[in-house]
Amino acid sequence: MNTVEKPMYGWETINWGKAQRYVFKLQKRIYRASERGDVKAVHKLQRLLTTSWYSKVLAVRKVTQDNQGKNTPGIDGVSRLRNHQKIKLAQKLKFNDKSGPTKRVWIPKPGNEEKRPLGIPTIEERAKQALLKMALEPEWEAKFEPNSYGFRPGRSAHDAISAIFNGICQKAKYVLDADIEKCFDRINHSKLLDKLQTSPTFRRQVKAWLKSGVIDGGKLFPTEEGTPQGGVISALLANIALHGMEEILEQRFSRRVGKNSAKRKISFVRYADDFVLMDESLEVILEAKAVIEEWLSEIGLTLKASKTRITHTLEEYEGKAGFNFLGFNIRQYPCSDKQSGSVGGTERKRGHKTLIKPSAEAIQKHLQKIDCLIQRSKASTQEQLINALNPVIRGWAAYYSTVASASTFDKMDSLLFQKLFGWAKRRRARNQNNTDVVSNYWGVNRGLGWKFITQDNKYVLEKYAGTKIKRHVKVKKTRTPYDGDLIYWGQRLSQHPMLRNVAAKLLRKQQGRCSECGLSFTSEDLLEVHHLDKDRSNNKTNNLILVHRHCHDVIHSARGTVTSQITEEPNEVKVSCSVLEER
Q: How does 365-380 read in b/e, with b if 16+ C-beta sit within 10 Å?
């Protein structure tokens, strides 16, 4: 029985802190019941969660305030709701075994001319998906394999890269670098529904979403396979469909080396539909590839031949060594040193070292983005150019700050200087030489060094080399935020590589809690920095507080100055948390 009463007034009167605490307690109980295998308790708690008023208003808030694509309309054309409309939506939110078709949108794939489809549901369907995800995700977080990192709470691409490093740092290995072809579009519906093993109500609702069809160019097309990309629950359904890959490999290839040695198994890391297999034996890699292909065929999927290859981390195999994964280049290099005590210094072989760097493709793509921004800023002021470049530079450098990127950062600073010097020379007067150009746009003659800085010294361009290299510690085994260990997850959040320095300081100052609602921040929260005196130029620490995005909305709406959200996308790879500047 649902004991939570609906609020007497409107959206503004909801106690969000109480709502989040209530929902999280239920999610933690679902996780623990799933962990101990109590299916009956899991289903009972899930029903309690999905009928709760607090869960419903949180689901509506997520799709109307928190999500990045909150203003994208579905087939009904509705993109925004007023507060009284949000209340009405929450009141009628329930699973009815029905779903309207999604709106098909084609977006370009990075690096080529191909496009991938997105299915945009209506706001009501997105809210229903968010509500069901609240109930299903804790159950499956207790089941998911330890080396699955994509689109899961508390896990990021940096965890996947750290897992790869741990898998190859001791010994050189052969690697199967694979990509599943059109993973989201070809998943077998019946296999996915059977794998869910959930209550009949949830199963029928998920089936309705899978079979809802898409509208493309005004025409309705049926969906006989695949999960609806663009929906709130899409990534969770894809992870459920791919669950079991690591387990089947462990069953087939776990073995003991020697009589008394420990059990050794093949190394496996998966991020969404991309994965790598690592082993010392080429025969094991080839056999594992055949096992994976057979396993994928059962759910209607295949490996993409153009993006699947076998390589070696140290030696050349088929003309190549090393591999790229999530924008990183992973490779091992032979190393040696001079033998001590010998005249002339004869070399003694030591083995190899593992280096992970930004990939050449990622560097080229980033430089193209920088070129595009500079080209669009031909008529802009130096201040405007700096404000356009800083978020891009800062985000890209932060993403690669956990690996051996120091030499790459120096190179990027040099290339950026050449691009900016060309931009500055096009703006000089006829009687100005290069020295005058440098004096106008750089701080050399002002005793500030080679900084791209405005004349009033107020706006300074970030440098790649200014980002400190700090190794990322991989998440422990099967840990998840639903286990309730707030201290562990708070420490991880404060050390996240994508977290701004100012946000990290505020996070430690506030002991990991939001200044507005008092709740602990999680890796899935969107955080914003708020200026207490309303002056964005005053960035002193005592003038700043760190709050949730929805809490920031409350602060601004209370004084009647809500403005549009500024969204920064520093890179194309999804991260666990993002901190945005105050609007």
A: bbeeebeebbeebeee
**Are the C-beta atoms of residues 220 and 213 closer than 8 Å to each other?**
yes
Helix (H) or strand (E) holding 90: helix 83-91
Mention every residue, 6+ apart, whose C-beta is less than 8 A from residue 411. none
122 — alpha (psi -120 to 50), left (phi > 0) or beta?
beta
Judge whether residue 259 has pLDDT over 60. Answer: no
Comparing C-alpha atoms, which of 366, 470, 471, 472 is closest to residue 411? 366
Convert the pLDDT of each residue in 416-430 to its tens digit: 999 999 999 988 877
Q: Please give the model's pTM, rounded to 2 decimal places.
A: 0.87
pLDDT for res 501: 82
- Per-residue tokens: 413: 């600073």
SS3 347: strand
Question: Rounded to whole angstroms, how far apart are CA atoms 55 and 95?
Answer: 13
Which of the 8 DSSP states describes residue 180? B
Neighbours of 303 (CB within 10 A): 18
CA 369 to CA 383: how far, in whole Å?
Answer: 19
Q: pLDDT tens across 464-490, in order?
A: 999 999 999 999 988 999 998 888 888
Check residue 474 and give its pLDDT. 93
